[in-house]
Specification:
The chain is an alpha/beta fold. The protein has two domains: 244 residues, Rossmann fold (3-Layer(aba) Sandwich), CATH 3.40.50; 85 residues, no CATH class. It contains 14 helices and 14 strands. The strands form four sheets. The chain has a seven-stranded parallel β-sheet, with helices on both faces. β13 and β14 form a beta hairpin. α2 packs across α14 and α6 crosses α7. The protein starts with a helix and ends in an 11-residue tail after the last helix. Belongs to the gluconeogenesis factor family. It is found in: Cytoplasm. This is Putative gluconeogenesis factor. One of its GO terms (molecular function) is LPPG:FO 2-phospho-L-lactate transferase activity. Keywords: Cytoplasm.
Length: 347
């Protein structure tokens, strides 16, 4: 009977919600999709740089860039169609310079449907995505940072430029109102998940903008899902300079006014000296330092491994290794209960 119960639970698709933005999110989503998880992506809408920033200013659109990359990562359409969707116009193309076709399509669909939520659902069907994609909110948000010296700056793309220590961040609507609502189905997805994954991604500008939406914050505090944080490998210019892995968790918990991360994944692989192309990857500084005693104060379980992937003179998380660890956790969650208690560290 016990073996039958184990087999039945092991064969059920784990419900995994991944929250964030930037380049790390689609990589993890693609890996989870390949492992046949029931995946939901909740994507930040506070980006104001590049093509996404131009479109949100020109047509009052929700920034589409992170949404575009997530749709592609979960899509079953042929590679050629993905390449077309991702194609970015050259700098000499005047008004279209820097815009990707996918960004334009998402913005156009949002205008046709009257909102970004329905636009994403229609595009999800067209692109045959395996999973669910929801914006964190159904309107563009403004990210604000308050620095340790008391000064404040608005705009996601402006924060790092100041090179100041950040005290905290918060989000508003574009008119300054703090009455920010989560998009449809976001809260229910978090509450019904087996696992909620944060990161990898920029701490202050990719992860926290989602958590600063009150309904999302409340749902993460209430969920019985195991909440997993994938700690960044490198410190980031103007955001996490001189941070240890424990400092990342401390910031998350301080913003939410309670310890809510159950499990943290930490890379212990060493980045070779002078390996990174500092011109191409100019936002990354040095490898995040380890503070295992600090980590154990912040999370029930610390899982450390060589999660490092070195390619193109850049530093990335090894998708297969990270996803393998997430699936091990998800199996324990399904068998022992979603918010299982443990003090076991694999370091």
């Amino acid at each position: 009977m016990m073996n039958e119960k184990l087999t039945r639970k092991k064969n059920r698709k784990p419900k995994i919600v991944v929250i964030g933005g930037g380049t790390g999110l689609p990589v993890i989503l693609a890996g989870l999709r390949a492992k046949n998880a029931d995946v939901t992506a909740i994507v930040t809408v506070a980006d104001d740089g590049g093509s996404s920033g131009d479109l949100r200013r020109q047509v009052n659109a929700v920034p589409p860039g992170d949404i575009r990359n997530v749709l592609v990562s979960l899509s079953d359409i042929p590679e050629m169609q993905k390449e077309i969707f991702q194609y970015r116009f050259a700098v000499e193309d005047q008004s279209l310079a820097g815009h990707s076709i996918g960004n334009l399509i998402i913005s156009a669909m949002a205008e046709m449907k009257g909102n970004i939520y329905e636009a994403i659902q229609v595009l999800g069907k067209m692109m045959m995505i395996d999973g669910h994609v929801y914006p964190a909110a159904e309107e563009p948000l403004e990210l604000h940072a308050v620095f340790k010296d008391g000064t404040q700056v608005s705009g996601e793309s402006s924060i790092a430029k100041h090179r100041k220590m950040i005290d905290h961040v918060f989000v508003t609507k574009l008119d300054g109102s703090k009455d920010v609502k989560a998009a449809r189905k976001v809260v229910s997805a978090i509450l019904n998940a087996d696992m909620v994954v944060l990161g990898p991604g920029s701490l202050y500008t990719s992860i926290l903008p989602n958590l600063m939406i009150p309904e999302i914050s409340d749902a993460i505090k209430k969920t019985q899902a195991n909440v997993v944080y994938i700690c960044n490998i490198m410190t980031q210019l103007g955001e996490t300079e001189n941070f240890s892995d424990a400092n990342h968790l401390e910031v998350l918990h301080r913003h939410m006014n309670q310890k809510f991360v159950d499990t943290v994944l930490v890379n212990i692989g060493q980045v070779p000296e002078n390996y990174i192309d500092t011109e191409k990857y100019d936002e990354y500084l040095v490898q995040v330092e380890h503070d295992f005693n600090g980590l154990k104060k912040e999370a029930s379980m610390v899982i450390s491994n060589d999660f490092l992937e070195l390619r193109d003179n850049g530093v990335f998380h090894d998708k297969e290794k990270v996803v393998e660890e997430l699936f091990k956790i998800s199996f324990d969650v399904q068998y022992y209960g979603r918010k299982f208690e443990t003090n076991i560290d694999t370091i």
